[in-house]
Write the structure tokens for this entry.
Amino acid sequence: MTWYVIITLAVVAGPFALSFDRRVAFHTHWKELFKAVLPVSSIYLIWDVLVTSRGDWAFSPQYSGTITILSIPLGEWLFFLVVPYACIFIYEVVRAYFPAKQINLRHMRKVRSSAFTLAGLFLLLAGIFSFQEYTLLAMISVSIWIVLTAV
């Protein structure tokens, strides 16, 4: 087993074990969770396959192992299932143990304004680094994600 797989499994161990906590009962939502995680993870895995095949980045077999699917190590495939699982689990724990307060509209306007400013900053960076294909693509992608999330 490689370090990448070991670390990925360590990341999911706690959230998985605590998924059966009565207050959170996260195990009852796994079906919905994977319906949400799989399409998003697929986009990132396609990104990984493309940028790896282009040579923008690579994985060291010493740490990521030799088992690959489409030139992507097993640990990387697991990463895109485990990390969203852990993040959404943390969100559900916070919701269960700290019931939501009413969000005021003024606060939401500030958040949206900040998001659009941040998206603009990433577009500016895309312009500055336009000669670097990967950086350009990453900055534009982040800008689009921020705008879609803020709307």
User: Anything to note?
Assistant: Residues 30-54 form the longest helix (25 residues). The CA atoms of residues 44 and 80 lie 8 Å apart. The radius of gyration is 19 Å. The mean pLDDT is 88.
